[in-house]
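queue> pop job 88
queue> type: inverse folding (structure -> sequence)
queue> payload:
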């Protein structure tokens, strides 16, 4: 465990009630810093609407955070961010799904809520740093004069993919105490120091969707529900009827209810004509695409082609590609070898070794 921190800093720890943020709080408080814990209430009616044990933000999570703060003799507060979360994260999720995209609300939550709204609140109350339990690292590069975001040393837990939208100012005032630790070390430390939630499972699902049922959530909350439309094969021939464009994602194979005698996958979605194109596995392959809404961390711009590793989903391996910025807010990516599951609305994150160069939204 290589974690070190300067003493006597004024630090707010974002405490979800889980083991990771609890250990982050333990490390920072025991290092002699002036710490307070803040838990965000993000989801309305969280006691009844959220599936206990699978997501963050539940009433029990708030109680767990309070217990840890009490044990560490650290003040703890709950901030109600439900309005901004509903408007800028939940509604954005609904809108993009009904437009045929596949958004990542966890990235938007980090961008808008944690490292903008919460960090601003941290600075308003006179504290310097915001710390979280994310598995990632931040270093200052003296040669470039920029803060760099790096992968965690525990690659299996690395969360840098979800953090590529962080700005230089946000990186400057953020701490990731777990960046050099493995999950095994975190649990052992929590157990050794009698943190009551050391066995608590990691949250897996999107915090505002019960039982991970996207379609039901969207149909309950959307002002305009997408209509039924046609499944078409790659040659344009109709081969079935879909139940709404929001119910399907690129690469999906199960639940299509199409009888064709061959294994079919969702290859693309046409919102204008309300059609979904089905094809074989080979039809999912793409070599090049663009990203927009870009954010660059290790550099201001990519003026000449760079050979980088690109991850198009959190659960996927980063693959080698040539990358160049073709406009102010457009980066073109060309993989060395064609890849599957290039999904509009998802994020593509660019890596140079362990360093996050930046990323953007696949269009």
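queue> result:
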């Amino acid at each position: 465990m290589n974690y070190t921190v300067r003493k006597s800093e004024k630090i707010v720890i974002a405490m979800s009630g889980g083991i990771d943020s609890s250990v982050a709080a333990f490390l920072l408080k025991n290092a002699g810093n002036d710490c307070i814990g803040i838990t965000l209430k993000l989801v309305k009616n969280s006691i009844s609407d959220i599936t206990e044990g699978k997501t963050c933000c539940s009433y029990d999570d708030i109680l767990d955070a309070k217990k840890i703060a009490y044990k560490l003799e650290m003040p703890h507060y709950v901030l109600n961010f439900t309005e901004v979360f509903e408007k800028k994260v939940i509604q954005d999720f609904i809108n993009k799904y009904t437009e045929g995209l596949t958004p990542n609300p966890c990235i938007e939550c980090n961008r808008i809520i944690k490292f903008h709204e919460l960090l601003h609140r941290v600075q308003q109350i006179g504290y310097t740093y915001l710390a979280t339990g994310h598995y990632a690292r931040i270093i200052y590069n003296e040669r470039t004069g920029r803060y760099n975001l790096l992968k965690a040393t525990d690659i299996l837990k690395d969360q840098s993919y979800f953090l590529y939208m962080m700005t230089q100012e946000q990186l400057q005032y953020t701490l990731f105490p777990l960046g050099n630790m493995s999950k095994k070390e975190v649990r052992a430390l929590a157990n050794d120091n009698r943190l009551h939630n050391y066995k608590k499972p990691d949250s897996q699902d999107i915090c505002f969707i019960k039982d991970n049922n996207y379609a039901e959530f969207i149909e309950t909350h959307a002002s305009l529900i997408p209509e039924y439309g046609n499944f078409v094969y790659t040659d344009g021939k109709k081969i079935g009827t879909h139940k709404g464009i929001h119910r399907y994602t690129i690469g999906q194979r199960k639940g299509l209810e199409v009888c064709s005698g061959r294994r079919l996958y969702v290859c693309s979605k046409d919102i204008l004509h309300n059609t979904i194109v089905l094809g074989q596995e080979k039809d999912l392959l793409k070599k090049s695409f663009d990203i927009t809404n870009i954010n660059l961390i290790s550099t201001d711009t990519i003026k000449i082609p760079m050979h980088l590793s690109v991850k198009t989903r959190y659960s996927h391996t980063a693959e080698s590609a040539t990358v160049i910025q073709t406009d102010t807010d457009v980066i073109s990516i060309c993989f060395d070898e064609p890849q599957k599951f290039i999904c509009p609305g998802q994020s593509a994150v660019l890596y140079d070794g362990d360093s996050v160069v930046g990323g953007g939204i696949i269009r």
